[in-house]
Amino acid sequence: MEVFLNLAINGLATGMLIFLLAAGLTLIFGLMDVLNFAHGGLFAWGAYAGVWFYTTTQSFLLGVICAIVTGLVLGLLMERFIVQPVYGNHVQQILITLGVMLVLSEMLKVVWGPNQLSAPTPEYLTGSWEFNGIILIKYRLLIIIVGFLVFAGIYFILNKTKIGLVVRAGVMNKEMVQSLGINIKKVFMLVFMVGSAMAALGGVLLGPYSGVIHAGMGMEFAILAFIVVVIGGMGSITGSLFAAILVGLSGAFMTYYVPDLSLAVNMLLMAAVLIFRPQGLFGMKGV
Questions:
Q1: Is residue 213 exposed (0-12), middle (13-18) or buried (19+ Cβ within 10 Å)?
Q2: Which CA distances in Å does 181 have to 76, 141, 160, 185?
Q3: Who has the most CB within 10 Å: 119, 122, 190, 202?
Q4: DSSP string computed for 236-257
Q5: Torsion of CA 198, 201, 202, 204, to 10 degrees
Q6: Any idea of the CA torsion for 202, 205, 206, 208, to the nearest 10 degrees?
Q7: Which of the residue ranges 104-108, 186-190, 262-266 has the most confident prediction, judged by mean pLDDT?
């Protein structure tokens, strides 16, 4: 029983890291209909900028803030100069954002070098608590709490606030929203920036979780994020949360009990969902 609960906690923490990346991706794709294959690059840049600032200032909180600001700035530049010209054209979006992904990954090597960077856990988050054989690692608990807080915040904004109403209305009929005097382009730019900041937040939180970061991490986690978005359903934040937890838990348990299937389990999950429910677990038909 103790092993089961420990694996569940580890899988939940991994799932929350994936959720932070996938939630931004599902916001951008589900609400803006933009296939952003450069999302993993924003994740990696958030990790590098945040960890560098954290190790320089010895303040983890400042490192997290730096990562979020980096995500916002890169998201603004990408949406304004790269994504805007290809709105409505998925083929061009795939090609240009894949190119941006490669550029962002190589730029990391130019700025910080090709070697891995060490990302130590803050002293006040090291260690763990033990209750009846169940080990609760402090940093992993932090990741789980942050993940649920981000989910609650996004869900509240999209469903309970005026800006959320404007975003959802703009997705359904942006011409109508513009006729009411609302600049829908600025609204979509804000959505893109928020999604980029969430990816960067996930990146900086991954640093102390794994202990090191490297330039190729963006592509690795971007694949997991796309799997989560497909399983959960395009544009569904709740679906992304559920799917990310499912992917995290399945990875943790398979790695422990059936290591040979640990790499294939996510693809098998996605294939099963596509066969029996192509719109995703929480997606709507036609989306």
A1: buried
A2: 22, 44, 21, 12
A3: 202
A4: -HHHHHHHHHHHHHHHHHHHHH
A5: 160
A6: 170
A7: 104-108
| pLDDT for 198 | 93
Residue 63 lies in a domain: yes
Over the stretch 272-282, which tens digit does the pLDDT of each residue have? Answer: 888 888 888 88
Looking at the domain assignment, is residue 139 inside a domain?
yes
- Total number of domains in the chain: 1
Residue pair 221/173 in contact (Cβ under 8 Å)? The answer is: no
In a domain, 40, yes or no: yes
In this prediction, residue 151 carries a pLDDT of: 93
DSSP bridge pairs for 131? 134
Q: Give which of 152, 154, 122, 127 is closest to 58, Cα–Cα.
A: 122
Tell me what pLDDT residue 285 has: 52
Tokens of 120: 């130590």
Tokens of 125: 């988050």
Rounded Cα gap, residues 84 and 122, in angstroms: 39
- Residue 287 has a pLDDT of 45
CATH number at residue 219: 1.10.3470
State mean pLDDT over 238-258: 88
Query: How far from 240 is each of 27, 81, 248, 285, CA to CA, in Å?
Result: 10, 28, 12, 17
Identify the three-state secondary structure at position 148. Answer: helix
- Per-residue pLDDT band for 284 (boundaries 50, 70, 90) equals low
Identify the domain containing residue 21 by its residue range.
Answer: 2-276
Tell me whether residue 12 is in a domain: yes
Residue 61: the pLDDT is 95
Distance CA 216, CA 106 (A): 9
3-state helix, strand, coil in the chain (%, to 5): 75, 5, 20
Exposed, middle or buried by CB within 10 Å (0-12, 13-18, 19+), for 198?
buried
Residue 211 has pLDDT above 70, yes or no: yes
